[in-house]
Amino acid sequence: MKLWENYLFKETVKLLITFLIWIYFTFILIDISIHGVHYYTYLKPTFSEIFLFYIHQFIGYLDIFLPLTFLLSTMKILLGMRQEISSLQVTGLSSKTLLRPFFFIAIILGGITYVTLEYLLPYSFAYVEKFQIVHSKHPEKGEKRGLHLLLLEDGSKLIYQKKKRDGLFDVFWIRSPDDILHIKSLEENTGYFVDHLHRNEKGLLENVESFAKESFPKLIPQIEPLEKTKWHTKLSTPLFPLLTLIAIAPYCLRFSRHISIFFYYAIALFSLIAFLMLIDAATILAENQIASPLLLIWAPIGLLFGVFGIRFSKSH
Q: What is the pTM of this model?
């Protein structure tokens, strides 16, 4: 990096980390004020347990906090160093060249977001859930789980109580409303203690035959809408910092003294929050199979990249 690039990079990273730290402690204060009494009433956690608990909770919101802090730090640098940036532009540097350090940061943040969603988030959710169960009024009840549903490729359904390494236990294989198999233990494609339930002429399910052991065709799980949506989310969310930069950079580099800086911040924050709410709504609709996640999630992102990308490409 050149000297000016190195300076812009370091200053932006410093601000971004500072904003993240402030948001983290603000997040802790707000959550403790709401749930603190609940956690301390029954089994008091240690300081280290609280610290780790909020670290894991913070990770769950990192895909929101990273674009937010990147937005604030980038605007602070670009709007606060107008004279220095104008001097660099006078020397012949284009806007795209000046923004190289910010693009580099956006790519790094995108990578961090992907790693968080793919590897850290499942572990963090499990840690938070365990902490909440242990410090609840009845921790033994928190360990209980309800029924689980697995959709199969042929359209039938598997409903089971629990899953272990050697298979599923207490399984109901609903092949149709009139044809149901109750399987005590299902290991791969072999069922043990199977009852075949069939609806009779009176509309009642009755056990027509039983088997101690029965082999079944290969049960192929269907890709659930939730899993599809998660996959598209993991691919699209890392693009948010890059989209944020493309959207705000042309306006910050052409700052007008006739418009208040507060107005720039207000519009930028409102736009980012509205965009995140839109993506959240699209995710919920995709999970409920209202439309394809490919359309619901990628259409608004592609549209915004197109609109702001055209404006960014015209900046000098």
A: 0.75
